[in-house]
Amino acid sequence: MTTAAVLATGLAFGEGPRWRDGRLWFSDFYRHAVFTLGMDGVETKVVDVPGQPSGLGWLPDGRLLVVSMLDKKVMRLEPDGALVEHADLTELADFHANDLITDNLGRSFVGNFGYDLHHDMAERDVPTILGDESAGSTTLARVEVDGSVHVAAEHVRFPNGMALIDDGRTLILAETLRLQLTAFDVASDGTLSNRRVWASTAPQMVAPDGICADPEGGIWVAAALGNAVVRYAEGGEVTGQVETSQIAYACALGGPDGRTLFAMTAPSSEPSVVDGHRLGCIEIATV
């Protein structure tokens, strides 16, 4: 097991990390903005997102896409700095829009909470919630380059982090409340088929939140119930683990050599604990 080092502090709740152009890009829910961070720990604000930012992606021409959680939209950052609506997810998202992944054609897949998880957690314990198949059951959306919105997959439970592997031919989806990584074949038109369990995270009680793929085909999973990022191989074998100082909610691979694992950590995901308190961190380890 490897122990992560803290690279940056002072986040409220970091999400959606992506390595691009020599910097880590990430959203901060409760500072309502997207930022970049260099390996020197210097942070730069990119754009304010009043509706609470989450998942990040890019169109082929380099324009940034960002999920605006509370109004269930994907926003697009124009070259002149204007943040404009790219897609409206209100017909498919049952609660806050959340994570996003964009392929090299500019097509995006977007998840949502499915329901008010924080309210549920205040009334029921985690095992009860996990055992309720209706909790967080919702639709994964597909957003085309033109902003049109389509159903990608139905009856997914709290669809969260995603990764594209096999040159984009396979989508791996973290179903947080199902404690599993679910795989789909991706057709040339973006439709998904051959849904299957890629890895169960239930034996380790890992609730998969943000995920990222490494060049060897492993999937690193932020364990939203614990202080760790765990690597899974297809079939469910645990093949690596990075211990973090706080609960890990999202992760990305990058850095100068591509082997730096970035983990977005916080003491809790409960808004009353983290909103306004700047307790979040970005932690790193070489993997």
TrEMBL record:
Residues 13-266 form the SMP-30/Gluconolactonase/LRE-like region domain. It holds the Pfam family SGL. Keywords: Hydrolase. Belongs to the SMP-30/CGR1 family. This is SMP-30/gluconolactonase/LRE family protein. It comes from Nostocoides vanveenii.
